[in-house]
Amino acid sequence: MDIRVPLIAPSVLSADFACLGEEIRAVDKHGADWIHLDVMDGHFVPNMTFGPVVLKSLRSYSKLFFDVHFMIEPVDPFIEPFVQAGADQISFHIEAGPHAHRSLQHIKSFGIKAGIVLCPATPANAISEVIDLVDNILIMTVNPGFGGQKFLSSQLAKIRAIHEMVQKSGRSIHISVDGGINVQTAPLVIEAGANVLIAGTSIYGQPDYGQAIDALRGTKK
Q1: Which residues contact 177 (CB under 8 A, 6 or more apart)?
Q2: Per the count of CB atoms within 10 A, which of 73, 94, 159, 197 is most buried?
Q3: Which residue ranges make up the annotated binding site?
Q4: 33, 41, 135, 178: which is the annotated catalytic residue?
Q5: 3-state DSSP assignment of residue 155
Q6: 38 catalytic residue (yes or no)
Q7: Of 33, 38, 41, 67, which is the active-site residue?
Q8: Active site annotation includes 28
Q9: Its family (predicted)?
Q10: Which residues are annotated as a binding site for a divalent metal cation?
Q11: Binding-site residues for substrate
């Protein structure tokens, strides 16, 4: 895995689903670091996307790190199917159930990376008891479920708080941000401590994916 900072993770939620494999291949070719795949169930969030069968079919289009974001509940029954389908990392919402510790252990038992996600209304300290298990902390800078939303600047303080928690832990943990990330907001989240930029419309909504990825990466201060 390339460790360039910031890492750029195009979100396929904003891609053309009629040719999703080719959309993934295109951002791979143009310098993406991760592929971010939102799994929605129509229950935890209003929309529905895809399941493990689709993920398995997409795996052949890229060897990049497949970063799977569960917006589902329950979490545990779907971990193994997505691992078998080709997920390199599964992150799920702390709000999705009371047994986050067990779910993180379950993910890691398959030898892949595990992450935890926080909605905008969830405080940073909600993950204090599981930070020893996570490889990735994803801070939602919009309310989950829809692409193309406006960035919530209120989440910058949370990113700073999470960064401080990670520093104190002494562990190597990615801090990801998702929602309204573009060339204007990327410098703000990087300065606050994020190192993975998940971007949908600011990449897939542009005519040149390579230029869009380079523009985001170039916002590092």
Answers
A1: 138, 139, 141, 155, 159, 189, 194, 196, 197, 198
A2: 197
A3: 11, 36, 38, 69, 145-148, 178-180, 200-201
A4: 178
A5: helix
A6: yes
A7: 38
A8: no
A9: Belongs to the ribulose-phosphate 3-epimerase family.
A10: 36, 38, 69, 178
A11: 11, 69, 145-148, 178-180, 200-201
Domains and CATH numbers, the chain: 7-217 (3.20.20.70)
pLDDT tens for the chain, residues 1 to 221: 344 579 999 999 999 999 999 999 999 999 999 999 999 999 999 999 999 999 999 999 999 999 999 999 999 999 999 999 999 999 999 999 999 999 999 999 999 999 999 999 999 999 999 999 999 999 999 998 777 779 999 999 999 999 999 999 999 999 999 999 999 999 999 999 999 999 999 999 999 999 999 999 986 54
Q: Which tokens in the block code for residue 71?
A: 């917006």
In the numeric block, which tokens belong to residue 135?
């490889």
Report d(CA 53, CA 154) in Å as an integer.
Answer: 37
